[in-house]
Amino acid sequence: MRRLGFLLLVCGLLTGAGVRAADWQVADAGREAFARPLDGLSDAERERFFHGRSLFNQSWVVAPAKDDQVDGLGPLYNRLACISCHARNGRGLPPESTDERMQSMLVRLSVAGRGAHGGPRPHPAYGDQFNEEGIPGVRGEGRVRLGWIESKRRLADGEVVSLRRPTLAFTELGYGPIGKVLTSPRVGQQVVGMGLLDAVSAETLSALAAERKPDGVKGRVNRVWNPSSAALEAGRFGYKANMPTLRAQIAGAFLGDLGITSDLHPAQNCTAVQSACQQAPNGGTPELSARQLDDVEFYLAHLAVPARRDADSEAVLRGEALFASSGCTQCHRPSLQTGASPRFPRLAGQTIAPYTDLLIHDMGAGLADGRPDFAASGREWRTPPLWGIGLTRTISEQERYLHDGRARSLMEAILWHDGEAKVASRRFAALPAKERRALLAFLESL
Question: Which of 89, 147, 160, 392 has the most CB atoms at less than 10 Å from its CB?
């Protein structure tokens, strides 16, 4: 009991249980909870925030167009708008059957070897992301059919949990056989709190990686290319921490998902064999102006994180202690400190509760995509932030977790954990049903 009481105290101090919402939080648990700005923005800042939001929500059009501020879609692309893969700023959803199209999901591609700056080597015909759509006169790259293979897992107390993993098939290929290719299906991620994570210093990440941890947990910093600085830097964003900054993440997504160029990525996303793509009209050089990129960055940087709910309930407090004692907090760190943030000063020096260390960890063979990304191996993934995870069903209308949306519940997501997370996952599976429910109640409070 003493140990439990101590854990309750520590967890309460770290997460702010029973404490008023922090400056970076918003007291909203509704369907727009991921769309609120931080408190305290000036009138000019709020105008900039909402302009950035309009660009994030905007459907881009084919060039040339009357409104040349939002033209330049494609020539190859996946969706018309950022919001298409991040509905209400939440998580994407995978297809549930092979005849359903991907709506908020994409497939990363590469071939063996390293590409520019040590990153993945793009497929010679299909690039580093499979673009199903093309503007008029440019053929899309094809279609992806995603199916599911189900299996069962019996827990220590007899409860049986159904798990599933995806299968991929490429059809209607527009540019020849795809051949031997490394693939990684990815659903869109929720986008709240990204400015705060951007403000966590590289020194903090290195210190977290250097800590000695129990249960075989390690954790590494992914070193990735920053097109702004033309140097390798600590990765923070993306499922494999393959993007160093929020700005780099935004510019990369505009190019990869919408085919919109920027100062960071001035070349169209056409491969050498895609001649119609190369000859298609563009929406300017670049198509996303520096001011527009600034405003989208400001918008995402200043999205507030929903405050916790029911943090003082008995079940949640018990689950919080179990989350810590099971070893989950070795990677899902309850507390981080932001460093300097010269461009966005209100994000500096904040104590935040994202439940991540932003490091990459070996998660075992079951979750492996076999596709390296800079220093991350095919088995390594960034620890995803958990703040806001309890509102997934409210925001997205369904629960889908992990990089490919395979997990239909938090229970399934935890049971897929292996590798460095094997010990913690096994402890969870061995808990009595009542205590498992308490731990899940804690997660739902975030």
Answer: 89
Nearest CA among 372, 152, 385 for reference residue 240: 372
d(CA 382, CA 251) in angstroms, rounded, equals 20
Give per-residue burial for 78-113: e unless 16+ CB within 10 Å, then b. Answer: bbbbbbbbbbbbbbbbbbeeeeeebbbbbbbbbbee
For the chain, how many residues are written? 446
For residue 108, what are its two tokens?
A: 């990363």
One-letter amino acid for residue 362 of the chain: D
**Segment 372-396 mean pLDDT:** 98
Amino acid at 367: L
**Which helix (H) or strand (E) element contains residue 366?**
none
What's the rounded mean pLDDT across residues 269-293? 97
Please list, residue by residue across 209-240, b when 16 or more beta carbons sit within 10 angstroms of its beta carbon and e when fewer do. Answer: beeeeeeebbbbbbbbbbbeeeebbbbbbbbb
For residue 3, count other CB atoms closer than 10 A to its CB. Answer: 9
Domain with 28 in it: 2-445
Integer distance in angstroms from the first to the last C-alpha of the chain?
25
231 has which bridge partners? 226
CA–CA dist 362, 359 (Å, integer): 10
Q: Collapsing DSSP states into helix, strand and coil, what is residue 8? A: helix
**DSSP category for residue 49:** H
Of 165, 163, 191, 170, nearest to 92 (Cα)? Answer: 191
Q: pTM of the full predicted structure? A: 0.94
Phi, psi dihedral angles at 134 (to 5 degrees): -140, 150
Residue type for position 397: E
**Which amino acid belongs to residue 399?**
E
Number of compact structural domains in the chain = 1
Determine the residue type at 318: R
Rounded to whole angstroms, what are the CA distances from 217 to 79, 175, 386, 420?
38, 43, 18, 5
Would you list the DSSP string of 373-429?
BTTB-TTEEEPPP-TTGGGHHHHHSS--BSTTS-BSSHHHHHHH--GGGHHHHHHHH
The model's pLDDT over 286-320, given as tens digits with 9 standing for 90+, comes to: 999 999 999 999 999 999 999 999 999 999 999 99
Tokens 């932030």, residue located: 385
Cα distance between residue 341 and residue 107, in whole Å:
33
Is residue 157 within a helix (H) or strand (E), and if so which, with residue range? none
187 pLDDT band (50/70/90 cuts)? very high
C-beta of residue 419 within 8 angstroms of C-beta of residue 329: no
